[in-house]
Amino acid sequence: MSIPANIYKMLEDIVGPEYISDKEYVLAAYRHAGPGGRGQQAGPGAIVLPGSTEEVQAIVKLCNKHNVKYAAIVSLFSVGRIGQPGMVFLNLQRMNRILEINETDRYAVIEPGVRHVQLKPELMKRGLNYPTASVGPGASVLANFITSGDHHMQHGASRVNRYLMATEWVMPNGEILKVGSLGNNAGWFCPDGPGPSLRGLIKGWNGWSGGFGIVTKIAIGLDVWKGPAVMPGEGHSPSYTVRMPPDKHKVYIFKFPTAEKLRDAMLEMGKAEIGNAVLKYFYATECSLTTTSANEFFEVWNSGLYQRELPLALWVYLATASPEEMQYEERVMWDIVKEMDGQPVDESIRKKYDDNIDHMFIIVSFLQRVLRLGGGWAGVKLGGDSVSHMFQVAGAIPEFLNEFIDKKMIIDAPNNWQIIPMEYGHLAHIEMLCFYDVTQPDHPNVMMPLMQRSAETDIKHGFHASTPMASNPAIGPLYSNFNLWVDKIKKAFEPVKEL
């Protein structure tokens, strides 16, 4: 359903005729439910590509005045969840400028369309870095930082909400709010004050996904980059290598006899403050990332190698500033591993990281390979608490997962969950990935029932393991009744309708 001609003309006056369309062949691209979705959902009435904060503001005010629904998008990943007939999509990909890289105070100011593959190399040239979520190089940095953004190097760093600095925010009523030091014309360096902080409204645990307005600029904090200024890549996709200097960059993978031993090794490495990344990783996902086709995946998976070596394995990525620091961290790591009865995994698995550390720990470019196995995947859990609590959650996964495996609705990979500690073990994140075949008739009965059964298990045990979402009020009591607060905030942010 197209938007009215008069509204289309007013939007055209804001962005120019080349940056708005209601053509059928253009709108068709915005109707897919996202990766793994087979059907098409309701699409928008028009696509608008603003080029500045002021244009975003003008579009929001216009939509409010004429009671037109709108939503902001960048990567199109979640389009199917928000598309409604007659609404306007603000595609922010045109706003793709890196506005500032401050090497002294270590922050970068970016717009929504800036991608990881755009920002990351510029920072590495300057000896700087930032946490990169497992979404591939083409994803929006800003979108990751204000929604989920979990990443594999949280052990030596933290979740991305800790890196969020000052923010420019077009609120639902069309007013521009500058959060943190920016609100006092003091620059981008600080996310808070003076006065109450609004950072939690922009990005608490998960983020609003556009529900409370549109973020048009953010500053993110930066870390030191301990690698080369230019990634030493060779070959061509899918067969290429990124060999980092081995005296300062190494990946180890150890297997443990019990989950308790694995947990304790993880905690001890946190106490010793060694390692950029220390995590228990998904083993089926690992197999899909390190193979180049579905046929190769099933050849390796059906051999039983990964089921034998990786159900209780710990990945350790050491990245140091000097060879001497590497030697120290290796000695500490080996002492901990031996104390917890750990052993190196099969050399054929370890060698893949000698040839390509990049594919997981620096900028994940292979994640889309999980879709080759049948086109569908469901991420469940996605919660956080202490390391020990996350292992308790993992121990209860069979209570709901086995029924889906027994019915052959998902791939038989009961240990395809990961636990990533943060800030050297002061907190941890859990996630489980399940793969299924979207060509099977019962595929719609996989994702939502699986997520529902997972949430029911959390409620039963009082686990903090589900992503807090306002659409799931049943878990509200586990998270300080957050859903009630979300409702109150939403009502406070709703724009006043003009008479």
Write the layout of secondary structure elements.
Elements: H1 5-15, E1 20-21, H2 24-27, E2 46-48, H3 53-65, E3 70-73, H4 79-82, E4 88-91, E5 98-102, E6 107-110, H5 116-125, E7 128-129, H6 141-146, E8 164-170, E9 176-179, H7 199-202, E10 214-221, E11 223-224, E12 233-236, E13 239-242, E14 249-255, H8 259-272, E15 277-279, H9 283-289, H10 294-302, H11 305-309, E16 313-319, H12 323-339, E17 343-344, H13 347-355, H14 358-361, E18 375-385, H15 387-395, H16 398-406, E19 417-422, E20 427-437, H17 447-461, H18 482-493
Parallel strand pairs: 2-4, 3-4
Antiparallel strand pairs: 1-2, 5-6, 6-10, 7-11, 8-9, 8-10, 12-13, 14-16, 14-17, 15-16, 18-20, 19-20
Structure explained in plain terms:
- This protein is α+β, with helices and mostly antiparallel strands and 499 residues long.
- It folds into 4 domains: 90 residues, Uridine Diphospho-n-acetylenolpyruvylglucosamine Reductase, domain 2 (2-Layer Sandwich), CATH 3.30.43; 127 residues, 2-Layer Sandwich (Uridine Diphospho-n-acetylenolpyruvylglucosamine Reductase, domain 3), CATH 3.30.465.10; 129 residues, Alpha-Beta Plaits (2-Layer Sandwich), CATH 3.30.70; 94 residues, 2-Layer Sandwich (GMP Synthetase, Chain A, domain 3), CATH 3.30.300.
- It has a 5-stranded antiparallel sheet with strand order 5-6-10-8-9. A 4-stranded mixed sheet has the order 1-2-4-3, with helices on one face. A 4-stranded antiparallel sheet has the order 15-16-14-17, sandwiched between helices.
- Helix 16 runs antiparallel to helix 17.
- The longest helix has 17 residues.
- The radius of gyration is 23 Å and the shape is globular.
- It starts with a helix and ends in a 6-residue tail after the last helix.
